[in-house]
């Protein structure tokens, strides 16, 4: 565990991770380009979920490299990275099951989004999240959930449209799980370690 901690805190490793996430964020926004063009302006912030999650983590890394913490960004990063990372993995696997085929981009999305979820969790010992920061992140992800499944702004996954009600229900509970995991790994565990 000590060895892993040293890697996670290594300045070179952090810099490489920063640029990987920055590149992934840019690619993610480009991937959403078509959907963003047809999205009403008031919903633009809430459509590209995964690149916004990796943007939060990129901002966290940028400050963390210089020894700074931004708890609101950290809370947004850990909850959204886990939620949208796992969500994209599940959606691509479902696409494979429904269509019987997945493009190379689909497999790439499975790998990159699994990595998103994992990296957010790996850095939980270094976040300075308190309950107010997590409450803010919780409001954000549930507000996004409503925008997606009440106002119909969810990402376009053609063959899965017929399952949208089920996907919305799954996404609700994934949101709950994301908040619970963030709470347990940051606030609860940090309080236990102090005792």
Walk me through what this model shows.
This protein is mostly helical and 195 residues long. It has one domain. 76% of the residues lie in helices and 0% in strands. It contains eight helices and no strands. It has helices at 2-9, 11-31, 33-37, 49-64, 71-99, 104-122, 131-149, 164-194. It is globular and about 50 Å long. It starts with a helix and ends with a helix. The model has no long low-confidence stretch (mean pLDDT 94).
Could you list some keywords that capture this structure?
globular, 0% strand, mainly alpha, 8 helices, 195 residues, 76% helix
Class by alpha and beta content: mainly alpha
Largest sheet: none
Q: What is the helix content?
A: over 70%
Total DSSP E strands: 0
Shape: globular
Tally the structural domains: 1
Instruction: Kindly report the average pLDDT value.
Output: 94
Quick structural gist:
The chain has 195 residues and is mostly helical.
């Amino acid at each position: 565990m000590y060895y892993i901690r040293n890697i996670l805190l290594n300045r070179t490793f952090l810099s490489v991770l920063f640029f990987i996430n920055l590149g992934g964020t840019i690619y993610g926004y480009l991937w959403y380009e078509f959907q963003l063009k047809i999205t009403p302006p008031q919903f633009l912030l809430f459509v590209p979920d995964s690149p916004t999650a990796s943007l939060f983590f990129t901002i966290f890394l940028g400050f963390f490299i210089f020894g700074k913490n931004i708890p609101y960004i950290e809370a947004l990063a850990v909850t959204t990275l886990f939620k949208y990372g796992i969500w994209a993995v599940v959606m691509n696997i479902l696409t494979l099951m429904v269509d019987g085929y997945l493009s190379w981009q689909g497999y790439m999305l499975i790998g990159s989004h699994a990595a998103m979820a994992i990296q957010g969790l790996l850095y939980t010992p270094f976040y300075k999240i308190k309950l107010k920061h997590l409450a803010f992140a919780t409001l954000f992800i549930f507000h996004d959930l409503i925008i997606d499944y009440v106002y119909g702004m969810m990402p376009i996954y053609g063959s899965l449209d017929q399952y949208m009600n089920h996907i919305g229900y799954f996404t609700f509970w994934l949101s709950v799980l994301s908040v619970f995991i963030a709470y347990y790994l940051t606030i609860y565990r940090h309080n236990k370690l102090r005792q």
